[in-house]
Automatic annotation (TrEMBL):
Gene Ontology biological-process annotations: cell redox homeostasis
Lineage: superkingdom: Eukaryota
EC number(s) recorded for this UniProt protein: 1.11.1.27, 2.3.1.23, 3.1.1.4
GO cellular component: cytosol; mitochondrion
Organism listed in the record: Gadus morhua (Atlantic cod)
Family matches, as SUPFAM superfamilies: Thioredoxin-like
GO molecular function: 1-acylglycerophosphocholine O-acyltransferase activity; peroxiredoxin activity; phospholipase A2 activity
Keywords: Antioxidant, Multifunctional enzyme, Oxidoreductase, Peroxidase, Redox-active center
Reaction equations catalysed: a hydroperoxide + 2 glutathione = an alcohol + glutathione disulfide + H2O; 1,2-dihexadecanoyl-sn-glycero-3-phosphocholine + H2O = 1-hexadecanoyl-sn-glycero-3-phosphocholine + hexadecanoate + H(+); a 1-acyl-sn-glycero-3-phosphocholine + an acyl-CoA = a 1,2-diacyl-sn-glycero-3-phosphocholine + CoA; 1-hexadecanoyl-sn-glycero-3-phosphocholine + hexadecanoyl-CoA = 1,2-dihexadecanoyl-sn-glycero-3-phosphocholine + CoA
Family: Belongs to the peroxiredoxin family. Prx6 subfamily.
Stated name of the protein: Peroxiredoxin-6
Entry function: Thiol-specific peroxidase that catalyzes the reduction of hydrogen peroxide and organic hydroperoxides to water and alcohols, respectively.
Length: 221
């Protein structure tokens, strides 16, 4: 089955993009990366997504995350459509602040499992779904999300998961439901009480539960 699983080294593919030919690992360097695909250029939901992504590039930069988009259209289409995207943002004349991969042969989309069999173009060929891959500095896949063409993504959520991924890569914690930066986090279950006390100088509070089991351990990271 095509696709990349969590923990896999992300393929070091070569591709044509709006900034020329790239080798993906060289493009990433030592940074985190986010690769997000969209079904087609010159389509409304995709335009809102890329415009939103362009508007918050500073947020990705702050987190050390390099951005790259992908669809099955050509570099020429990407370049022309980018002008619409930036105009939609009210920034006519400003270049799109991240490259777009031109996967017009669909080879990368097949390799990464990104095609949506329910979204067909006029020639009967499948379009790319709305995939998101977050890749760590070790080039391994940390997160993947797959949305259909008809549902646009939430880029605030993408920033939130990146905050969680980066925090949990550094500390032995996990982020609970609806967590946002600054909230308390959970101590991971594999840590003993002694280890947790030593690791979290801000203290660990444990919620009493009917089972008597002490697994709901909160701390301020
Ligand atoms: C859109 O981006 O608006 C879109 C693209 C393909 C199918 C449905 C919607």
């Amino acid at each position: 089955m095509p696709g990349v699983l969590l923990g896999d080294v992300f393929p070091n593919f070569e591709a044509e993009t709006t900034i020329g030919r790239i080798k993906f690992h060289d493009f990433l360097g030592d940074s985190w990366g986010i690769l997000f695909s969209h079904p087609r250029d010159f389509t409304p939901v995709c335009t809102t997504e890329l415009a939103c992504a362009a508007g918050i590039t500073g947020e990705f930069k702050k987190r050390g995350v390099k951005m790259i988009a992908l669809s099955i259209d050509s570099v020429e289409d990407h370049t022309n459509w980018s002008k619409d995207v930036m105009a939609f943002n009210g920034e006519t004349g400003t270049p799109l602040p991240f490259p777009i991969i031109a996967d017009d042969k669909r080879s990368l989309s097949v390799q990464l499992g990104m095609l949506d069999p329910d979204e067909i173009d006029k020639d009967g060929m499948p379009l790319t779904a709305r995939c998101v891959f977050v890749i760590g500095p070790d080039k391994k896949l940390k997160l993947s999300i797959l949305y259909p063409a008809t549902t646009g993504r939430n880029f605030d959520e993408l920033l939130r998961v990146i905050d969680s991924l980066q925090l949990t890569a550094q500390k032995k914690v996990a982020t609970p439901v609806n967590w946002k930066p600054g909230d308390k986090v959970m101590v991971i279950p594999s840590l003993s009480e002694a280890e947790a006390t030593a690791l979290f100088p801000n203290g660990v509070t444990c919620k009493e539960l009917p089972s008597g089991k002490k697994y709901m351990r909160f701390t301020q990271p």
